[in-house]
Prior knowledge:
Layout: E1 4-8, H1 24-38, E2 42-48, E3 54-57, E4 60-65, H2 76-85, E5 91-94, E6 108-112, H3 122-125, H4 129-144, E7 148-151, H5 154-163, E8 171-173, E9 193-197, H6 207-220, E10 225-230, H7 236-247, E11 252-255, H8 262-266, E12 271-274, H9 284-291, E13 295-299, E14 315-317, H10 321-333, H11 335-349, H12 354-368
Helix pairs in contact: 6-10, 9-11
Amino acid sequence: MGKKVGILTTNFFSPDGTRMIYGGAERYGLELTRLLLELEYEVSWWQIGNGWKKEILPGVVINTIPETRSELMTFPNFNQHFYEQAMDVDYAIYFVTFLAYPQVLEKSISISHGVFWDYPGFDHQLPTEAERKEWLRRLHIALSGPQKVVSVDTNTINWINATWPGLSHKLEYIPNFVDIDSFSHRVNHPGKVRIIFPRRLTAVRGVNEAARAANVLTKKYSGKVEFHFVGRGHSDQLEGEALKWASEKDGIFYYWQPPHMMPEIFRYMDIALIPTKGTEGTSLSCLEAMAAGCAIITTAVGGLTDLIIDGFNGLLIKPTPNNLIDAIEYLINDEKERNRLSQNAKLTAEAFSVDRWKQKWKKVISEVFN
């Protein structure tokens, strides 16, 4: 019987258990679980929920803790319940850094999926100076507890090193991954440019700016461009509204596919939009679009600058509708430039292969779970 690893997250499914979340973090969690199983560990997950249990992979159960109360962007009671329920667990992974507050199992790792406090809305969560100081104190405790903190981007590491230089020995940079072999050559379709927004339908991911660009450019380049919005919303209602909006527009499409179908979708796309405004690591969507050979338009936010060098393998813009429209129009009208960025993006993606990601994670696991 292998040693047991317990993983604590907030939501892999919605709290009522009815809706799986198809985001980058959840896909990361599945791949990390598979790696732990390959290494012959037993794996269990815990999340917020009302007592239900589900298998996320054969033999891998996700347990639920009926604790929804948060304090200053942390979940101390949730953390405490996990600490008590996971007494037969040998090792722990805190899937989000703030879940490691206030206490952790002795042999533990936490993961940072990127800075999440770089968005204006975050200020509303902690409106007073006293609250911000207390949040920082708690974050420092959460970073100090685990033996290793795996960060998917250098933006987070630079911020931590500038804020608390004494934590640098804990930090490990393991960028997100892409399965290069899943992406075959793109399908050419002369005379038409297909543009994809492969993201959740949220404001922070830039869906409003992308929708504005789609409205403007499908009218200006009628019959020449298509916009494909491929991602889940936070609710069935939101997805229904997106479907209705797209169905009323020529050249605009909305649908979503499970992660394993995305390589086939990307085959038919020329340009990928990653117009993030905050809370971003080394985006899996961006990496997949790169591996597929799309020309990337993205922003200098979070870990995206670990992936894209402006003018070499993509375009970095400020996340405004006009900037996005200008960048898309530039690539629509310059096929040679589009192809050059595409080729360089595909080449760059090889440095982020899932095999390299596994090797780096194996090293951290062997150091902590020895």
